[in-house]
Amino acid sequence: MRANAAIRSVSLLGFILLWTVAAWLGGDPTVLPSPADLVKPFLSELSSGMLLYSLGVTVFRVIAAFCLAMSLGIVLGLLMGTNPALDRWLDPWLVVFLNLPALVLIVLCYLWIGLNETAAIAAVTLNKIPNVTTIIREGARALDPDLKAMAQVYRMRRSVYLRHVVLPQLAPFITGAARSGMAVIWKIVLVVEFLGRSNGIGFQIHLYFQLFDVAMVLVYSLSFIGFMLVVEWLLLQPAERRIRAWRLA
């Protein structure tokens, strides 16, 4: 564990060093500011409260869309993976939504629902459900038929079967969908905020993009990236190791 933390720290320090060298070679902080040039604007936004407020708004949208997409995607994927007839009917729909550009869905949700919070979260959720469904469907197709037969022989209740037989087998697929989902969802949330919201990290990036302020764009972008790295290292990766532990026992 400590070795992994040390490797990550050295890797990040290497990235910061490379960034510093590139900024020094460029010689123009308005185009590529160095990490040191971001300290003052970062502290200014932090002390004003705008950075924390924007971060909180974006995190709320990410969590809301993530929970909705994972819940609906798991249910739909499990149904399609265990019911071939339903899979044949819904597979064309899944292909359509998998290939529908995120930007199109975002614009359509804003046009149909309006420039509001419901449209923003709906756009992000609809973009992610097909990916979660696809991953879970493949996991459901790979369920062990012998374990299913055993459950039928012992007349196991459906709730017990789902909890103790199905979910442990789907756990790697669920964690994979969760990790990839979180990585994709927050990026789509920023686009949603960039196009049609009046707050959040994406809105702030849009504002400073219009002002050609590279430093502030980097401050807000890196702040949210840093938050997501903390979530990845402290929540998602430990949860994945715990879920997969039974396979290594």
TrEMBL record:
Keywords: Cell membrane, Membrane, Transmembrane, Transmembrane helix, Transport. InterPro entries: MetI-like, MetI-like_sf. Coiled coil: none annotated. Pfam families: BPD_transp_1. Residues 55-235 form the ABC transmembrane type-1 domain. It comes from the Bacteria. PROSITE patterns: ABC_TM1 (PS50928). It is found in: Cell membrane. Gene3D superfamilies: MetI-like (1.10.3720.10). One of its GO terms (biological process) is transmembrane transport. It is a multi-pass membrane protein. GO terms for cellular component: plasma membrane. The chain crosses the membrane at residues 57-81, 93-113, 217-236. Belongs to the binding-protein-dependent transport system permease family. This is ABC transporter permease. It comes from Roseibium aggregatum. The lineage of its organism: Bacteria, Pseudomonadati, Pseudomonadota, Alphaproteobacteria, Hyphomicrobiales.
